[in-house]
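Before a colleague's protein record goes any further, I have to sign it off. I want your independent view on whether this chain really folds as the tokens say. The record follows directly below this note.
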Amino acid sequence: MPAPTSNKAPSFSGETSDLLDFFELFEDLALACGLTDAEQCKLLVRYVDQATKRFWVTLAGYESKNFATFKASILEQYPGAEKGVRYTIRDLERTVLSSGDGDISTETELLQYYRQFRPIAHWLVTNGKITTRERDRYFWQGLPTTTRRAINRRLEVQDPMYSRAEATNFETVLKAGRFVFSDDAFDADLNDPIASRLQTMRDSRTPNSTPAKVKRATPQWDSDNEDDKKDAKKEVHTKRVSFSPQPPVKSTMDEVEELARKMHGLDIGDIAYSGCY
């Protein structure tokens, strides 16, 4: 038998759900080593912690070296241990919600969800917690919407009598999904170097880049047809011009009135009067 510290040694974590697996591994090793009942009782307690060992050695079958009785006494102290790993509907719902909110676009991702779903659903169905109909509905709900649409089209093609009135068996759904999202398909991104290269080029583009404006060339005419030249759009250039304000110009009447006022205050003999006159 392997040493208790060996990575090949059976180990009990203390969890009820792990106890059956612990016994299964221990008994396989004991059978391979040809151990007697007395030896099995003695060695079994070496693979648990000290607190568990002190409790187990007080149970029926240990002192009498009867391994079958000793094992039954131990299992009796852990309700539900004989069923192995235990699951709840809440465990199944968490798995379904986690997958449904994610993305399944490859066969590998679909199988990963299936491997998480099946052990829980199998235990719940076997122990009467859910029906097979509910199991199939749970599995379908764990598929993202786009994944469901793709699988649904495949199911419709496969079976002309296909009905959506009831959820399809989850194994049938898995088979259709593996075909749709096959990793071996020639155009699967995982295997197609062309698709991978083009995707890399798309990702490297600047999303908001604006192409540079191209200056429009002036048309060069190779014809003497004047009508063609008239029809062509002519480029018009405009220029803004501003003028400085100019002083107002006096009218003739204003000038006459001003001279009359000057002459009115002068004597007829003044030289200035003669100039104004």
In short: Residues 184 and 191 are 7 Å apart (CA to CA). DSSP finds 13 helices and no strands in the chain. The chain has a mean pLDDT of 81.
